[in-house]
Design a protein that fits this description.
Non-ribosomal Peptide Synthetase Peptidyl Carrier Protein, Chain A; two-stranded antiparallel sheet; binds flavin mononucleotide
């Protein structure tokens, strides 16, 4: 499913690189880091499940397929990953499962994210998702895209708390695994309803809440308001995961310190950078910074991503790889030219040849 006009390209990467550059001048996070690490030393408990990482990879429509998750998991084996969101009604009515629900049997921990506004279909879809291997079921109550909200799904549930509760209750009744929700702080600045909604969702049986600190009106622009996440954390007993603008180890530490959240969820910061979840996880576990990959290492990962997408999806995989390849190709001389080519790549050997040439240039420079 496409997220329409969401601007996610090299802008996201620029945000991450910019945050890192800015953070180098800010030493406050070092002190915060020690406090955060000691507070979050134990496992993340979601209902009866215990996770060995407090850093989660967000569901990203059009991005977090099985291939992308495999790359992220290489650096963050204990982290919870989410499928792209799956529409419950479509799933229940279709004969075959959508490939957005493909899960590798060896892939755990994995959560399947569902969206819809029909409690009965969501319950049935959750049962199918568990049969496919979902360790938890996540319900999307944050997607701002019109075609989702006009049908009563995604962030429109912010305006219909009774339905949001009915959905959680139906899914909790349908499956034995923990049911979690990912949502936003409200519809717009005049309707920041997250405090009331969060309490109702917990009362309905949600086992964890991820809060993206933006309103629906903000879309993906502006700044994520972590202060609202702190207020949610203060009133819930279930784990609260902070989401929005987690683009580096530094921003993760700052966010965890400011919100008191039980973990962080990385989103656009992982585009073209499947190392991020592992980098934050490594810091939280050891207090050490993993060296950032060089531009050449990122490009080698891009090549692998291209090959893996082709192996999994054939020519469709090549077309889907174009945006990923462009996200990897940033931050070095000649990157713009390489991006321009990679956006039009037709075959694996062609893409690999272009990338190999760029790597050779970087290594001889
Ligand atoms: C391309 C794209 C696809 C997304 N798809 C989903 C999705 O399927 N489910 C979901 O809950 N959120 C989705 N989101 C929202 C992100 O998971 C996250 O909440 C948001 O990007 C804020 O985090 P960030 O500021 O770190 O990017 C998507 C965002 C983007 C940019």
């Amino acid at each position: 499913m496409s997220v329409g006009s969401v601007a996610v390209g090299s802008g996201a990467v620029a945000v991450r690189d910019g945050a890192i550059a800015g953070d180098r001048q800010d030493s406050a996070w070092l002190a915060q880091g020690a406090a955060v690490r000691s507070r979050l030393a134990g496992p993340l408990k979601i209902g009866a499940i215990s996770l060995g990482s407090r850093v989660l990879q967000a569901p990203l429509s059009g991005v977090t397929d099985l291939v992308f998750r495999r790359l992220v998991r290489r650096y963050a084996p204990a982290s919870m990953m989410y499928t792209e969101m799956v529409q419950a009604t479509g799933l229940c009515q279709a004969k075959a499962l959508p490939n957005t629900m493909d899960v590798d049997p060896a892939e755990q921990p994995i959560s399947i994210q569902l969206f819809d506004c029909r409690p009965d279909f969501l319950g049935e879809a959750a049962r199918r998702a568990v049969a496919e291997g979902a360790m938890t079921i996540d319900i999307n109550m944050g997607c701002p895209v019109n075609k989702i909200t006009k049908n009563g799904g995604g962030s429109s549930l912010l305006r219909d708390p009774a339905m949001a509760v009915a959905i959680v209750e139906a899914v909790v009744a349908a499956v034995a695994v923990p049911v979690t929700v990912k949502t936003r702080i409200g519809w717009d600045d005049d309707e920041i309803t997250i405090l009331d909604l969060a309490q109702r969702l917990e009362g309905a049986g949600a086992a964890m809440l991820t809060v993206h600190g933006r309103t629906r009106l903000q879309g993906y622009g502006g700044t994520a308001r972590w202060d609202w996440i702190r207020r949610v954390k203060e009133i819930l007993t279930i784990p609260v995961i902070a989401n929005g603008d987690i683009v580096s180890v530094e921003s993760a530490v700052r966010c965890l310190a400011e919100t008191g959240a039980d973990g962080v969820m990385c989103s656009r910061g992982t585009l073209g950078y499947p190392f991020l979840v592992g980098e934050i996880d490594h810091f939280l576990k050891t207090g050490d910074r993993r060296p950032a990959p060089s531009a050449a290492e990122k490009l080698r990962c891009a090549k692998e991503h291209l090959q893996m997408l082709y192996d999994y999806k054939g020519d469709r995989g090549i077309r889907q790889a174009r945006k990923h390849l462009a996200w990897y190709a940033t931050g070095f001389e000649g990157a713009a030219e390489l991006r321009d080519r990679l956006c039009r790549v037709e075959t694996v050997p062609q893409g690999c040849e272009w990338i190999d040439r760029a790597i050779a240039d970087l290594e001889t420079a």
